[in-house]
Design a protein that fits this description.
Layout lengths: L1 E5 L4 H13 L3 E6 L19 E5 L5 H11 L3 E4 L6 H6 L2 H23 L3 H6 L1 E7 L24 H20 L3 E6 L1 E3 L8 H10 L4 E4 L5 E6 H14 L5 E4 L4 E3 H15 L12 E4 L14 H7 L7 H14 L1 H10 L1 H5 L11
Parallel strand pairs: 1-2, 1-4, 2-3, 4-5, 5-6, 6-10, 7-9, 8-12
Antiparallel strand pairs: 9-11
Helix pairs in contact: 1-8, 2-4, 4-6, 7-9, 9-11, 11-12
């Protein structure tokens, strides 16, 4: 297949791109606007592949999308481009409305135009996979069970509201225009190449630098954690074997309180990279005021994707977290340093990877 990955220079998108180029024969085209969270270094191991193309393109740019589809002629779209940080959405929701809602609309319209131009045989195998989040469901009490595919939407933040809107658009384009779509809603991801504003990489790097380890409130919020490479496999499974029009929840079976996650990172660092004074990194934990509208608990019922498609996560939270910390320790002076000092954004300007769709 020829597959377009929107947001393919981001955390999850780059994991999908690496998996496809390392483990399948498919050709891919990564489309990314290259905002602060888009980093071509996360694609470093596959940039030279003859099956890889890159386009710097904003998904709100309808004309650029039309040109891309006409030139690349994809068999499938994996739509991961999104603004995704809750704190940023609270401080400035406009970008989230623009990218997550308007961008998805422009992409759907461009895909619809392209899909209508395909032969009946090509239409029969074409797929549009929309990658979303469990945050669209709102939150759960500690004894409320799990998010299912039929759980009503109740988003709490500008981020989750914008993702909920994009989910509704995708389903409407399926029902109204017969676009062959699939939707996934996933748990919190973690793993290599995660931008340092997110909890686990922030705690790792702050700990190593002797900084405070900020925890909202008392750290009692509960999240289900999914190793990013397990998520990438799940997305490919849905793309290739999922039923058109269906939604699949993807979870890691790893519910943890935020304070438990932070303490687990500290314990592993105590073992893998001890402080020079031999005290625990836990001494750096600092509790800070909770953020507005902070959801209490997310928990995914991944039974449907397991029963119907045969996917289950490979990594436990413990094995995935150890892999993650080892990766950050070995990339602290390369990828991490260039992200933290901003040089990754300056250096990418000289790259020429298949043209620009500006």
């Amino acid at each position: 297949m020829k597959i377009i990955i929107t947001g393919g220079a981001g955390f999850i998108g780059s994991a999908v791109a690496r998996m496809l180029l390392n483990d399948t024969p498919h050709k891919i085209c990564v489309v990314d606007k290259l905002t602060y969270a888009g980093n071509l270094e996360s694609l470093g191991e596959v940039l030279e592949s003859p099956r890889f193309q890159f386009r710097q393109l904003d998904i709100c740019n309808r004309a650029g999308l039309d040109i891309l589809f006409a030139e690349f002629r994809p068999d499938a779209i994996m739509h991961l481009a999104a603004e995704s940080h809750v704190d940023r959405s609270i401080d400035g929701p406009g970008e989230f409305i623009q990218t997550n809602i308007n961008g998805t609309y422009q992409l759907l319209e461009s895909v619809r135009k392209y899909f209508d131009s395909l032969s009946a045989d090509k239409q029969a195998t074409f797929r549009f996979l929309h990658v979303s989040t469990d945050e669209v469901y709102g939150d759960l009490g500690e004894s409320d069970g799990l998010f299912r595919e039929d759980t009503p939407y109740a988003p709490s933040s500008p981020y989750s509201a914008s993702k909920a809107a994009s989910d509704h658009l995708v389903r409407a384009w399926h029902r109204t225009y017969k676009l062959p779509v699939l939707v996934t809603n996933c748990a919190n991801n973690y793993g290599p190449y995660h931008f340092p504003e997110k909890l686990i990489p922030l705690i790792i790097l702050n700990a190593l630098e002797g900084k405070s380890l900020p925890v909202y409130g008392k750290g009692q919020q509960i999240r289900d954690w999914l190793y990013v490479e397990d998520h990438a496999r799940a997305l490919y499974t849905v793309l290739t074997t999922g039923k058109i029009g269906e939604t699949y929840n993807i979870g890691g079976h790893n519910e943890k309180r935020n304070i438990e996650v932070v303490e687990a990172v500290c314990s592993l660092l105590d073992d893998l990279y001890p402080r020079t004074d031999h005290s625990s990194y836990r001494e750096q934990i600092t509790f800070v005021p909770d953020r507005p509208g902070h959801d209490l608990r997310y928990a995914i019922d991944a039974g449907k994707i397991e029963r119907e498609l045969g996917w289950t996560p490979i990594e436990t939270f413990e094995s995935g977290l150890r892999k993650t910390i080892l990766w950050y320790l070995s990339h602290r002076d390369t990828w991490c340093k260039r992200v933290q000092d901003g040089s990754y954004q300056r250096e990418r300007l000289g790259l020429n990877l298949g043209g620009s769709g500006k």
